[in-house]
Design a protein that fits this description.
Blueprint lengths: L17 E3 L6 E10 L5 E8 L15 E8 L2 E17 L4 E8 L10 E5 L6 H9 L6 E4 L10 E6 L1 H10 L5 E3 L7 E4 L13 E6 L1 H10 L10 E7 L8 E4 L2 E12 L7 E7 L18 E10 L2 E6 L12 E3 L21 E5 L9 E4 L11 E4 L4 E5 L3 E6 L3 E6 L4 E4 L27 E4 L5 E4 L5 E4 L7
Parallel strand pairs: 8-11
Antiparallel strand pairs: 1-4, 2-3, 2-15, 3-6, 4-5, 5-6, 7-9, 10-11, 12-13, 13-16, 14-15, 15-16, 17-18, 17-20, 18-19, 20-21, 22-23, 23-24, 24-25, 25-26, 27-28, 28-29
């Protein structure tokens, strides 16, 4: 069997050399550790409890840490560190079994669903991931993607931090590689470039997935080749970690999945690794499926042209200088700029609509106003008090309640205001089939720019002025 291994022969780890922290077990019957890209490393363990511990260990508190390690004449070697997620004590007549399930510390990022936006398109992608990761216990991440500006809107909606970062990384066809041998939240973004390891391979199975290759090539990363989808499932006594690389068959392969396992009645630790070329570890892009079809409410921060900046209600605060410019959908707008053009004002309430699961498609629309009254009455209003009211029997145009025009359904027109001026470049004709009434409380004055004037004063007098006055 071709192996490329030239190191010393590795001795298997005996089950009696494996210990766990937190619990004092008489023996370990079985355990399984599994780790893969984008998933938390998991531990499932069954051990035999001493008689005096059967009731004590069930009281273990939530998120209790656990370490699985090997202890022999070569020293102490950590195999797994995580937090307990499930514990069970089973009475087996002559002895008690302790059943434990645990996950890597990255699980802490995958508990609480959150909603928030990251609108600063100049923010570096690593600063975005850091802002999300930093609050967690002993959090450290290393990245192997370009630290470029995001150049886009990111919205975390009803997603855990782990789900969201996984989606962000997938935008660059990168995956998350959780670490399961260090205390705290530790992970890599994209395939790590670590020192190459030696691996003594006991047996292997080779395969190639044409379906995965064609899917990724056509939809995500066209620069892939078929060689990237050659996969080896190998067994070895060596302990590798997720993302480690080895040289096998004169090619560099990376660990994309690992399983450490002791099966009941088997006395040694068996390690299985899935090896792939680096290109084969590229991930399909994930989308924000929770976003599709939703509207997020917010308040307008700035307006320019047909775009607005918005502080979303899901965010605690939003610096206007870093806010994203959303296109605002105006009424009956057309490509040539004609049609209706109603832009909101600063502090107006709006909604950001997501027609698909991709933030790039989001745009702003008007907000639903909670106006009580007759649903048959329609309004167009501004923050300055100007309003057009479409009633069932009239249309009313109001300027801050100081001037009003009412167009009645019966054909009547009423104009009210502080002062009313009628000006025309040519002529104004006033005609009625019945009568025309002109009245004034103090006087009525009709004049011509060339000097002719008629004045009706409040005393009942009529004064006629002009170069010539003719009375017939």
């Amino acid at each position: 069997m071709e192996n490329n291994y030239d190191g010393e022969k590795t001795e298997p780890i005996d089950y009696r050399e494996i210990k766990i922290s937190t619990f004092d077990l008489e023996a370990i019957k079985s355990f399984r550790i599994e780790s893969s890209i984008n998933n938390h490393s998991t531990l499932e363990l069954v051990g035999i409890l001493p008689e005096d511990r059967k009731d004590h260990d069930i009281s273990t508190s939530y998120n209790t840490p656990i370490e699985v390690y090997c202890e022999n004449d070569q020293g102490h070697k950590t195999i797994y560190i995580g937090i307990i997620t499930e514990i069970k004590v089973k009475n087996c007549a002559e002895y008690y079994e302790l059943h434990i399930k645990a996950k890597s510390y990255t699980y802490l990022m995958d508990i609480k669903k959150k909603s928030r936006s990251f609108q600063n398109t100049d923010m570096k992608i690593i600063n975005l991931i850091s802002a999300i990761t930093r609050p967690y216990y002993k959090a450290v991440f290393n990245y192997y993607i370009d630290n470029a500006p995001t150049n886009r809107l990111w919205v975390q909606y009803n997603e855990t931090d782990w789900e969201f970062i996984k989606r962000v990384a997938s935008y660059y066809n990168a995956g998350l590689f959780p670490n399961n041998t260090l205390e705290g939240v530790h992970y890599f973004v994209d395939t790590p470039e670590l020192e190459s390891k030696n691996l003594e391979i006991n047996e292997y199975v080779a395969s190639k997935s044409f379906e995965d290759y064609e899917d990724m090539k056509e939809n995500d990363t066209p620069d892939l080749s078929e060689i990237d989808y050659i996969t080896y499932r190998v067994k070895s006594y060596e302990l590798l970690e997720l993302g480690d690389n080895i040289t096998f068959k004169e090619q560099v392969f990376y660990v994309s999945k690992l399983i450490y396992e002791i099966i009941e009645n088997n006395s040694i630790l068996e390690n299985t690794y899935i090896l792939q070329p680096k290109g084969g570890q590229k991930q399909k892009r994930l989308y924000g499926d929770n976003l599709s079809g939703i509207s997020l409410k917010g308040s307008v921060l700035e307006v320019t042209g047909d775009k607005i900046k918005v502080k979303l209600d899901i965010d605690k605060d939003q610096d206007a200088s870093e806010a994203y410019w959303f296109t605002y959908s105006t009424l009956s707008a057309s490509t040539d700029g004609s049609g209706w053009y109603f832009m909101p004002e600063v502090n107006d309430r709006v909604r950001i609509y997501f027609p698909t699961n991709d933030e790039d498609d989001a745009f702003a629309i008007s907000c639903i106003q909670q106006i009580k009254g007759d649903p048959a009455v329609k309004y167009i209003s501004t923050i300055y008090g100007n309003k057009v009211v479409f009633g069932s029997d009239s249309v009313t145009i109001t300027a801050d309640n100081n001037a009003t025009i009412v167009l009645g359904k019966n054909g009547g027109i009423s104009i009210n205001g502080g002062s009313i001026s009628l000006n025309a470049s040519e002529a104004i004709n006033i005609r009625a089939e019945d009568s025309v009434v002109i009245s004034g409380k103090s006087n009525v004055e009709i004049s011509c720019d060339k000097g002719g004037k008629t004045i009706l004063d409040g005393g009942g007098n009529i004064e006629l002025k002009g170069t010539k006055v003719r009375i017939n």
